[in-house]
Amino acid sequence: MSTEQQQDQKQNDKVKRLPPSVVKDIELKNQARKLAHLSPISIKVRRCITCQQMFESAGNRNCGCNSRGTGYIAGREII
Ligand SMILES: [Zn+2]
Ligand 1 centroid to 51 CA: how many Å? Predict the structure, then answer.
């Protein structure tokens, strides 16, 4: 039995969302991946390993809280 529940809608106010530009970037990457017959990148809600906040992740393990400022691009760890 699975206790996993899909409550994304309910938890929206608690989850740090990806910026639209990043979502767009992932969509573009997914189009390219589809053409290359790769499985698409999925955005999942997970807990930041640094600040414990729930956030939308495209493979990152932290929400960006410890790499704020220049050079940080969400989704950067995507292979
Ligand atoms: Zn964080």
Answer: 4
Q: Ligand 1 centre and the CA of 30: distance in Å?
A: 25
CB atoms within 10 A of CB 46: 16
**Which residue stretches of the chain have pLDDT < 50?**
11-12, 69-72, 75, 78-79
Distance from Cα 67 to the centre of ligand 1, integer Å: 9
Among 40, 46, 14, 13, CA closest to 27: 40
Q: In the prediction, which pLDDT does 79 show?
A: 44
pTM of the predicted protein model = 0.60
Residue type for position 59: G
